[in-house]
């Protein structure tokens, strides 16, 4: 397999992908191969387009040129992501990769708009397309080359877990479709005088615009702050709960500062009767070991939970049953009862079900609804409820 052969030739210690230097080399290799292949395809298609006077082929050529720019961004992105943190940027410079990709996305969209204009002009003012056999064969070969490039990016993307390279692989598949349309229009020119070339040019230009829009969307999303990877969420929670005397976990928040750079905080529930110094040592060790294992910066907050008071345990169990009937509530945590005799407060945080969030009219109405339902069962208690959100 050519992809594996290239990796073995250019990357030493290829299996050590947890090493940042090795991972960067994978990114550089993918970027350099992308630049070389797309530059060659651009040269071939521009030559064919000029020779045959085909606007569709020219549009496809400049689509490859924009893909070459994306490969440049891949290299720049991996390089910028490796710059160490400084005083002004304590969490590093990883997000510059997204900003650079955003610039390229707008460049891609400008190219698409320009060729839509040119294609419409070609429809209104048709030009004879000169079909020639050798240029036709070159276009077919370019499609096969693009298919291989897509597989190569997918291979590298899966190897190092790079969403950027996986997206590049999907983009390559879209380019294959566009190139096939161009080949069809070129072949059809032999049999009809209709301005099929112009119509296909519009189709290819729209494909370029869509690729640019998708890139903008994928780039803006992490800059705004998107939901974290589900696998990372599950791994953090699982690792935290694996330590002695940690009986629950909630309020996990993950901040993304670029590819492979994340900070996370989580609340760990611990028995309230455990020695403070002992649990502090456990939490410190958990922070250190999980951070190293998952390549993140993890901060753990301790939440003491009463496990001996039957009143608290029984009340919590009953209130969990009451709350579970409300479709907007996912779970509760930080449950406690404060006060004496008939002057007691039930205090807890209720986590909103994120899938129902858009249907929620008011948090205050939700708290009132929960309090009334609990009051029917525990009329002597007052409820102090904090509405919490699920950030994962």
From TrEMBL:
Residues 228-304 form the Cation efflux protein cytoplasmic domain. The keyword Ion transport does not apply. Keywords: Membrane, Transmembrane, Transmembrane helix, Transport. Residues 32-224 form the Cation efflux protein transmembrane domain. It is found in: Membrane. The keyword Membrane applies. Belongs to the cation diffusion facilitator (CDF) transporter (TC 2.A.4) family. This is Cation transporter. It comes from Romboutsia weinsteinii.
């Amino acid at each position: 397999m050519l992809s594996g052969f290239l990796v073995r030739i250019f990357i030493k210690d290829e299996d050590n992908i947890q090493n940042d230097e090795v991972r960067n080399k994978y990114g550089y290799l993918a970027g350099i191969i992308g630049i070389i292949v797309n530059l060659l395809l651009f040269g071939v298609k521009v030559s064919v387009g000029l020779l045959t006077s085909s606007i569709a082929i020219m549009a496809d050529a400049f689509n490859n040129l924009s893909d070459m720019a994306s490969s440049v961004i891949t290299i720049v992105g991996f390089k910028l992501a490796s710059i160490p943190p400084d005083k002004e940027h304590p969490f590093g410079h990883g997000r510059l990769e997204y900003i650079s990709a955003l610039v390229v996305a707008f460049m891609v969209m400008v190219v698409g708009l320009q060729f839509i204009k040119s294609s419409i002009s070609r429809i209104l003012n048709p030009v004879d397309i000169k079909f020639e056999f050798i240029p036709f064969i070159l276009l077919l070969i370019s499609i096969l080359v693009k298919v291989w490039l897509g597989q190569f990016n997918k291979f590298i993307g899966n190897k190092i877990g790079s969403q950027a390279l996986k997206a590049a692989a999907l983009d390559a598949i879209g380019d294959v479709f566009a190139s096939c349309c161009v080949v069809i229009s070129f072949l059809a020119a032999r049999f009809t005088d209709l301005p099929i070339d112009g119509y296909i040019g519009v189709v290819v230009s729209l494909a370029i615009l869509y690729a640019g829009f998708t890139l903008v969307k994928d780039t803006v999303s992490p800059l705004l702050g998107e939901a974290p990877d589900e696998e990372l969420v599950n791994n953090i929670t699982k690792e935290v709960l694996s330590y002695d005397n940690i009986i629950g976990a909630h309020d996990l928040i993950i901040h993304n500062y670029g590819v492979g750079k994340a900070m996370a905080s989580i609340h760990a529930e611990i028995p309230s009767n455990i020695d403070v110094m002992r649990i502090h040592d456990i939490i410190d060790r958990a922070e250190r070991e999980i951070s190293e294992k998952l390549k993140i910066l993890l901060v753990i907050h301790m939440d003491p939970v009463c496990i001996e008071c039957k009143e608290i345990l029984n009340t919590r169990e009953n209130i969990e049953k009451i709350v579970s009937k409300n479709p907007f509530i996912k779970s509760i945590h930080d449950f406690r009862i404060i006060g004496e005799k008939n002057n007691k407060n039930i205090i807890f945080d209720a986590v909103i079900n994120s899938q129902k969030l858009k249907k929620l009219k008011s948090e205050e109405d939700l708290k009132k609804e929960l309090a009334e339902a609990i009051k029917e069962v525990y009329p002597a208690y007052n409820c102090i409820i904090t509405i919490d959100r699920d950030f994962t």
